[in-house]
Amino acid sequence: MGALVKTEGSTFTPPGAGDFNLPPIFGGVTKPMILVVLSVVIIAAFFLISSRKLKIVPGKGQFAVEYIYDFARNGIAREQIGSKDFRPFVPLILALFSFVLVNNIFGLVPILQFPTLSHFGFPLALSLFVVYPVYHYVGFKRHGFVGYLKHATVPPGAPLAIYFLLTPIEFLQKFVLNPLTLAIRVFAAMFAGHLILLVFTVAGEYLLLHASGPFKPISVVSWAFAILMTFVEALIQVIQAYVFAVLSANYIGAALAEDH
Fold it and tell me: How far apart are CA 236 and CA 117, in angstroms?
């Protein structure tokens, strides 16, 4: 939607990357920073309150928290890390899934309406300072320094000459690209999804209030697409939280595995 120019001297300027650079609310504190803190409070309160009085026959809150825990424990951690090693990492995987999910959903919550991870710094920090150190630490701890480097960069069974090409690629992937791609996936999905919603919503408002003649009814179409994309975005938000947790667990499992 390039430049919808029209009537009454008004020009439609579509939303862009600049709309994600929110001004500070006070001091140097911005809305995304507040949302990150709020997400931690919400997650902690949810798990503490829901698990405060556990019963054999669970209520709605206990059922919800048990379902999420079981999903993170058995559906992600056990599957990706393996039944032998997964238990110590269940809290981490549960925390990652919950944190990414809540911060993604913020994009659809009235008033808040901003997916925190659409600011690249947040998923990058989560990847570089949480996931990346954990899976390399457990890899070095299990295999030793030289053993882990060999485990991570020298796949067995390849011809000797191939290793001159394969080993640098494996090193680049394991030690440089993995944390970047982990962060980029969720960032790109949240940024693009929120931008699409902005475009259709703002375009609908512009067409209704500023366009004339046959353009006004098109505002209904624009808002209809905004509603449709809201449901699609909700699905993507959940999927991206799942993907982030699955890949994090997969990296840990690969670092711990005996085989490459």
Answer: 13
Return the pLDDT at 238: 97
d(CA 148, CA 250): 16
User: If we measure between CA atoms, which residue out of 155, 189, 188, 187 comes closest to residue 174?
Assistant: 155
Query: Within 13 Å, how many C-alpha atoms sit on residue 79's CB side?
Result: 13
- Report phi then psi at 4, rounded to 5: -90, 100
Residue written as tokens 């556990």? 54
Contact by Cβ (8 Å): 114, 194? yes
**Tokens read off for 157:** 């069974």
The number of angstroms, rounded, from the C-alpha of 8 to the middle of its chain's C-alpha atoms is 42
C-alpha to C-alpha distance for 46 and 133, rounded to whole angstroms: 28
DSSP-derived letter for residue 119 is S
- Determine which helix (DSSP H) or strand (DSSP E) holds 57, and give its type and residue range: none
At 177-217, the pLDDT tens digits run: 999 999 999 999 999 999 999 989 888 888 887 777 677 78
Calpha distance 186→164 (Å, rounded): 33
CB of 252 closer than 8 Å to CB of 137: no
3-state SS record for 155-221 = CCCCCHHHHHHHHHHHHHHHHHHHHHHHHHHHHHHHHHHHHHHHHHHHHHHHHHHCCCHHHCCHHHH
Q: What is the pLDDT of residues 17-30, one digit of tens each?
A: 888 988 999 888 99
Helical residues (DSSP H) of the chain, grouped into ranges: 31-50, 60-70, 78-81, 90-105, 121-126, 132-143, 145-153, 163-172, 178-209, 218-256
Judge residue 96's burial from the number of C-beta atoms within 10 Å of its C-beta, 0-12 exposed, 13-18 middle, 19 or more buried: buried
Q: What does the block give as tokens for 25?
A: 């609310």
Q: Give this prediction's pTM.
A: 0.90
